[in-house]
Amino acid sequence: MIRSSMNVRKRDGREVPFDQAKIADAIDRAARSVGGQDRFLAEELASVVAMFIEKEWSDRTPSIDDVSDLIEKVLVETGHAAAAKAFILERDRRARIRSALRVRDDERPAPNEKLPTVDARAHAKVSSWSKGKIVEALLVEGDLPPSVAEEIAAAVEQRVFSSGLTRVSTSLVRALVDNELFERGYDRVLNRQATIGLPRYDLDRLIRAGVGGGLAAGGADANDRAVAAASWTQYSLLAVHSPEVVEAHLAGRIHVGSLGSPTRVQRLEVDVPPAPAGASAGAALDAARLFALRAGETVDEELILRGLDRLPALLAFDEPTEAAERLLSALGHPAELPPPSPRLALEVRPRAAAELADAAKAIGLSGDETAARQRAFAAALFAAAARLGDRDGVVAPRLLLGLRPAERTSDEVDDLGALESCVLAEAAPGRAGIVVESGAFAGGLASFVPTWLRVDVDVAQSAFRVRRFETGAVVKQVGEAIGLAAAACEARARFFDGLPEATSPRGRLARLGGSRERVGGRYEIGLAGLDAACRVAFDHPPSRDERSLEFARAVVEAARKRVADEAKRRRLPLVAAFTDDADVLRRFGTIDFDRFPRGRDVHGVPHDGRRYLYSPSLSSRDDGPSPEAAAALEASLREGMLPTPLPNDHADAADRIRFVRAYVDPSGRSPQECA
Prior knowledge:
Strand content: 5-15%
Number of helices: 26
Structural class: alpha/beta
Radius of gyration: 34 Å
Low-confidence stretches: 107-124, 210-217, 603-612, 662-675
Largest sheet: 10 strands, mixed
Number of domains: 5
Distance between the termini: 97 Å
Shape: elongated
Number of strands: 17
């Protein structure tokens, strides 16, 4: 028996353990090709070969060619000339194939790529065939045992040699490797080996602007972002999230945000640092612009800056329109360029005199005068946003009006009414919204709040999945979807924890905020399509039918409880909200429209089958109830939910914002007077 420490040197220089069984297999194949069928004899002859190797290479390592020479010699000297000839011919055939075969690189090489990698075809880069490169790639990338890697590489080599081809691409080699991994059940390794990127057709479509609705119209920067986002999305689905979460996302049951930017936070709400005392308006704007650029490096979707409407340098202007236009011009972007990434939003919050004491002192006015000036400046912001695009070719940031329940004077109530009129009438569609604080979030949020990830749940699809009038079944479906959403948040949290400090979003935000203690943040689970779910389950919106109303309340209450339970179980800062993202709502509606035939008439309006927009929160159409009843319903459902904007371009925006005013404004006037 040959010693256990004996190795054999492969043609690529690797040394592998001697395997007598492989010699027996080679002899058996040669014998069977000429009519032999004695496996026992093949094993006996293999033992003779092993004996010669042990004797002649006791102090050195034989090569694979040395072993092949010995096999030929043993077959000839033991009277098996026909088998020896077949072995020699096969050996010669494989040598000629190996010598002639060339591998064309057709994938862009990674820094530590081991397989023959791919370059642009124009470079015509080719390399000789090497089974060892396949083995090494499987060992490094797939973490497979050496024996398994050798088996897979040998099987791939056999397929290539049998094909009769003299030139193959690395894409073909990788596909053959993937096939062998799949057939052997190595799904985990197959995922690690997966190639991430866009097909050439998609890249061509991006480059050639305007063809088939391609993304190239946004310019080169938009193209680059689209390609990067597509690749990172594939990576997120393969490497970050579980198959159950991925399946739910693809089916439209949930929507996992920021898949295309896995190392960034999805959204950041932050107060702009105050400018130095006595700073001019120009210096304050420069500081705000620089802070926005720094913060934007850590954010994927939306950066919300707060506190700009309290900067003394801007409140010092006697003419608020001039201050508003200077601010929007400084933070806007040219109309001919694609939208920035992330989107920029400015949130203004009317404050009482006591909350503006520092600003009042800096500009030498009373608290009441400063509060009135702040409200006038906020109104000028919304009015100026609609004018900038026509006059200066500047697209203003999105504007948000933050409101909270509080006792107000009649003058303040009138000023708020003017502000809301600007949101509805003056601001460009889709560029403004009202955020109403409520419940546990009343009184304002922290000054530095990253949203690490937002996962939205399609409540309407939960209703489509069960029979009508089954509130309990819908609640169960929503709960399961929330569980999947929480699992997605937990997976992203683990992924963040595994990143090095230099690329970790938590580390980058700590440097931005000046202290790690300031970086808390949350994971959001949003409810989408509640209004549509009411129509699916009970034929009516909750504002018109008592059963539908109770259904909506049951779903929201169960969702709030499930989110709280998941937060406690997973030890994550999970919060519940209503979905306000138009793209997510459109995606859910389009998927449901395609998958569920009865979803096509839920809203009772015609649509084209591609854009099927679900309402944020609830709808007040179809001859709804009085404003008082609608306001009470809206307030009860939003109680304890994270505040989300009511958009100014939604079909029901005017009614819904009027109804919300009845909840926000305790001035004593009737809702009709508030409208």
